[in-house]
Please model this.
Amino acid sequence: MDFFGNLLQGFGVALSPSHLFFAFAGAMIGTAIGVLPGLGTPTTIALLLPVTYKMEPTSAVIMLAGIFYGAMYGGSTTSILLNIPGEAASVVTCLDGYRMARIGRAGPALGISALGSFIAGSIAVLGMSVVAPTLAQFALKFGPAEYSALILLGLMMAVYLSEGSVLKGLLMLTLGIALGTIGIDPVLGVPRFTFGIPRLMDGLDYIAAGMGLLGIGEVLVNLETPEVRSVYRTSLRGVLPTVEDWRRCWGPILRGSVIGFFIGVLPGGGATISSFVAYAAEKRISRHPENFGKGVIEGVAAPEAANNAGSTSSFIPLLTLGIPGNASTAMIYVALMIHGIQPGPLLMQEHPHLFWGVIASMYVGNAMLLTLNLPLIGFWVRLLKVPYSFLAVFIVTICIVGAYSLKNAAFDVGVMMVFGVLGYFFRKGGFPAAPMILSMILGPMLERSLQQALKMSAGDLWIFAEKPISAALLLITAIVMLIPVPKWLWKRYRSRPRAERPQDEGGME
Amino acid sequence: MRNWGDLIGSLLFALAGIGIVAESLRLKVGKLTDPQPGFFPFVSGVVLIVLSLVLLAYRWSNPPNEVRSPGNFRGPAILIVGMAVYVGILDSAGYILSTVFIGTLILRVLGIRSWRVLGGVGIGLSVGTYLLFSRLLGIELPPGILTFLG
Model:
């Protein structure tokens, strides 16, 4: 079946009443959690996994995907009206969005953010429809050596593109890989790190661990200083941008869409880094870069377009290679596995309904978000008045239900809570959780692929270099790993004549 | 100014790495041509130790200009103890009663003083989520002493 035939089949799936409902539910939940600071996208997807157990797999993924891209729409609302990003991907929107609100232009800021997100989301879905089948076809050539190299690259990119210190990210990544080895050894069937606890034979449940690290960890941090929120009172009239606004924004929206799409496809890429790069690029090419940060509409349009395109295109490595690139797609990966579906190059052939249905649902979901979000901005603003105390109780309760429902055992609730405490201390120390979650999921895959590759080559590591795809991927991984070195050396060199000064934080990190 | 959080953190990571290496050696590491169950964890343990020592050395020789304040541990500490109690009583007391306990505790830590609000939200949320997940979505939750619910 050709491309249009496949897409038509996808629309047949996405436009069925039940899938329309789940796309709507996902988009609305996503917008709500994007609006509410303190409840991230991966956490919400993890929390809602139990709800999907009894759903049909396509419905489950349509809803979870809706949460992911819906959150990108919602995240901008708090950035513009409160100067508090609801999502990490909306941090950069605060710079000009909040400034626009302060000068009475909150309406156009919210409007261009929604319209830009819609345009970018649509461009990204179109790109995804074209790129994903080609990439899946290409990935069919992958053997264990190529997969090992690809997973390694994905993990490294996740560290280098995540927020905070690279060194700390690497530590978290390695710890996650080690934690992923808990349970029965996949090749020889020997229990590892189980310490006589039968429940650990199947390994640590990474859904419970993820909910703890992200959900409970966040609540514990917020318990330290109960936050006070105040919505900036401003006119929300005129959310439709003017002709002049459009004239200034069409370029940033298109450039943001392209930047977001390509960064989202990278393993470890996604919405957050896309928005930063798009903003920086826009500022660089602007004739008046000095105005950025003072309330220019381009500073809202570009990052909002980029984060939507990035979140959509980050589904490409998940669906075609079976490699989740960020914590949110990792949770969707888990959802697919729960339903007995292996994401990867064969997904398109074995489950075309799901593959094309999810892609088509993104077109539909983006249109829904646009038509619903602009009229509902007042409602989302009111949602911000929900006290955090109620939200915290709700998050903890849902985490408990989610963890318990994994195996109907209090043990997993305990695992979640232990990881919650760890997540709290990690967050306090600036250790990013996302690389650890990813490596807990990808670590066992990496071990299996490595062992298979080494068996094939009788222990000869040359197998990774003699296969062109694996060699190229390993070369890129090495380049990624070495990126911080020149920066670190340059900093050391520059700091020499002023040795008496305290050194900057960061450096090699 | 020393960032004791990073220094202690790197030491803890190094300790975890040593533990992983020790257990991997007990499991048998093998070699590249014949990797044993301890091979992969052994490699990750060694990498963990090396990275922890790099962080330790880097932070020791490059103290940051500013160190974040440790924050107020009271609220998190209370909830951590509460969560330990929760896990202990979940099966015996059941989902509803345990969740009323943890919900009330969180609200209290976050400064809610009115017993009416504490009770209302705690009971409302635990009963509401029980009905939603257990009755509507078919997720099994422990009834505990409220066995008539099971």
Notes: The helical segments of chain B are 4-27, 39-61, 74-93, 95-109, 115-136. Chain B touches chain A through 71 residues (CB under 8 Å). Chain B has a mean pLDDT of 86.
